[in-house]
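Example with several molecule types.
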Amino acid sequence: MPELPEVEVTRRGIAAPLLGARVQALWLGKPLRWPLGHDPAALAGTLVGEVTRRGKYLWLPLQRGPQAAGGLLLHLGMSGSLALRADAGEPGPHDHFDLRTDRGTLRLNDPRRFGAVVWSPALDRAPAATLLARLGPEPFDPALTSERFHAALQARRAPVKAVLLGGEAVVGAGNIYACEALHRAGIHPALRADRISRPRATRLLAALRLTLARALDLGGSTLRDFTDVHGASGAYQAEAAVYGRAGAACPRCGGLVRRVVQAQRATYFCPGCQRR
DNA sequence: AGTTAAACCTGGTTGC
DNA sequence: TGCAACCAGGTTTAAC
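Resulting structure tokens for the full complex:
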């Protein structure tokens, strides 16, 4: 699930209430993608700083008095979501991490356990820096110009859909928003990235930004598991033009939406208005 | 070097 | 109804 909009919706839900919260305890359930890499008890008494996001990762900095105490790098994987509650109760079968603070419990629910919570001494040091090293520019970074985006596409011979998922030209798009952005831009998902003209690259970047911004407005997409920190579902999936709509009519041209498989992932597109 | 497949894990849906 | 097969929002790691 969680693509950039869902992760950002989550960040917005926890940043203010957790700023300055005092950590009382960390609780770990079943193993996630990687071990925490730190003694949970050693983090009790630290204060949470400002939660930030990079790509689909969240960073919760911790400090002990004036001293930085590293932080937690979180990823929601395919099925993860975070909840923040004053009285969280006992963890359920798919709850695998709690950050218990004096402002409530931040709880990770992740049925598939592709998610991760990793302690790192700093955002720019291992292991956090290693995990973030390959990430391309943020989609809303003004420094990501259409020139730079086009240049990044020119460097890749893979299908543009796969390049969007790769996150090197730009981060944030997962399977839903890559399909939706390509549809909005009128670009065929199988088109080689290096065959995309400057004008079309400009159009694709704009389409991606519009798609992600719209999803943010709607609280993200909820296919099954995702909810924001208050338990609310996203609403974007209801207005998806192509994702998950194989055989249905394209809202723009009325053609039939097709489902194909690219790089082991389902791709939905409209052959009528997405051109090579 | 660069692209592709396999791996991690659980549960819901589909089809025989 | 039962059960096997397939599918799902991601990303690292290993293999061509």
